[in-house]
Amino acid sequence: MPNYTKPGQNRQAGKDLREQQDTQQLKTFTRWWNSRLQKRGITVTDLCEEIKPGVISMNLIELLSASVAGKYNKSPSSRFQMLENNGAFLAQLKSKNIRLVNIGPEDLTAGNRTLILGLTWTLIQHYEEVEKDELLDWVKEVTNDYEDVNVTNWHTSFNDGLALCAVLNKLSPQSVDYAATKALDKLARLNKAFDVAEQTFGVFKLLDPNDMVGVKTDEKSVTLYVAKLRQALAVCTETAAERAAKVAAEEVEEARKVEEARLAEVARL
């Protein structure tokens, strides 16, 4: 007798999958916030709770934009002050032509998970080199010579660690022995790839291997990680002199922006 699945069961399965992926996305995005905020010694453990006062948000936009965000209450003690901070944060985003949809200070002050995830993805798209189709094509091209790697999508193609190890091996052969990683199980292989990427290339561990094996992973989470990996590997192809010149130029430009913002703030007082 055919084993029919009831419509209600399909809907529940879809809800369960979305919840699993949202949970993974929140973990990944929290780690992304931490990768940026670590410059100021700030560590976030519960993004939806800690975003409410509006303090970490103002720190984040200052770091992302290399500018001074202006006045805000660094120790808000009331909901009104939190709303003020979050309003100032959203105003900063608008002033930088970052498109916001259906989100207000009250949503951040309430810790609305869905809107916080959407806002974080908007920031990632604006400040990181993330274009999923182009990025997936890049991975396919890089891993084309690896018979065991078949990259077709963001949900499952990276879950056994082979694609990530192949990318590392292709662009930096000395960093990982691809043949040796094939003997590892999926979890160990993912851990190997993430360890090498972090220790050798400084790529923050945005993904948790335990959230990837045997499941349909969150597309945005994996896309973000691979984008950061490509950025780091691209730096390795530069000569030492090119890297030094680039870093020096970035530091000068960041200092210029900070001073320009400071002078503008003084002028407004």
TrEMBL record:
Keywords: Actin-binding, Repeat
Pfam families according to UniProt: CH
SMART domains recorded: CH (SM00033)
Chain ranges of the Calponin-homology (CH) domain: 23-128, 129-234
Region (Disordered) location: 1-21
Molecular-function annotations in GO: actin binding
Biased composition (Polar residues): 1-12
Domain of life of the organism encoding this protein: Eukaryota
PANTHER family: SPECTRIN/FILAMIN RELATED CYTOSKELETAL PROTEIN
Stated name of the protein: Calponin-homology (CH) domain-containing protein
Lineage: Eukaryota, Haptista, Haptophyta, Prymnesiophyceae, Phaeocystales
